[in-house]
Amino acid sequence: QFQSLQLEREMCLASNCTLARVNLSLRPRLEDGKASLAIKYQELREIREACWDKQQRLEAYLENWSPQRALGQLQAKLDASEAESEAQIEQFLAQDLPLGSFLESFCQSRTRSHICRTQLEKLQELLQKDQVGRDPAGPAGDPGALASPARGRLAPLRSGLAP
Hints:
By secondary structure, this protein is mainly alpha-helical.
């Protein structure tokens, strides 16, 4: 029985030694796999950071170039153009501006106002259509909701002096 245990022990040692050699022979493959995995994780970190940066830039871009921001900018441009027209009228009425230069500058100013108003109204229409497309029960909205407060003051002039 002692010999049988001795034989079993030697067989276990031989098996253990064989397994150790196999493990040692696989060690370079394991190390290469670990190095490759570390490289992949580094690439993943870099890609994740690049993706995060791009997402931040996209969010900033979308915030800066949203339709609502464009609407606000058009409204400000329209208000400025109409204020310029009013200032020109006041200068002309105060006889600080000759008729020829008044007509030229006033026509240009009113043309800019008209173009800006048209763009503003068109953008409002598009936004309303987009809103209705997303939410069929959405608000009807007023296309002139963001129209200039100077609009009513200059309305009588449109028929007379403005083109």
